[in-house]
């Protein structure tokens, strides 16, 4: 489960970093809808990884309040982005 979680974090990071470096080092730019979609997708991947972390911590009887707070906060960001 840890491998899947870290792959989600890595993919989310790459989804943000690759288009940013392309835009910085070339004369091209991306449309706002593409940027909006990529950022939302990255946030959703982080939320999914955090939910896996909550499940894993719950099975180990560890505290997971911080992860739930992060999930709620990121969900609010995604919802506000759609409004």
TrEMBL record:
Keywords: Membrane, Transmembrane, Transmembrane helix. The chain crosses the membrane at residues 33-52, 64-82. It comes from the Bacteria. This is Histidine kinase. The lineage of its organism: Bacteria, Bacillati, Bacillota, Bacilli, Bacillales.
């Amino acid at each position: 489960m840890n491998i899947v979680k870290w792959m989600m974090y890595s993919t989310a990071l790459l989804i943000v970093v690759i288009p940013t470096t392309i835009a910085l080092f070339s004369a091209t730019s991306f449309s706002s809808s593409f940027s909006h979609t990529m950022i939302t997708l990255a946030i959703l991947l982080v939320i999914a990884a955090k939910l896996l972390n909550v499940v894993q911590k719950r099975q180990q009887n560890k505290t997971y309040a911080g992860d739930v707070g992060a999930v709620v906060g990121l969900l609010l960001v995604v919802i506000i982005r759609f409004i």
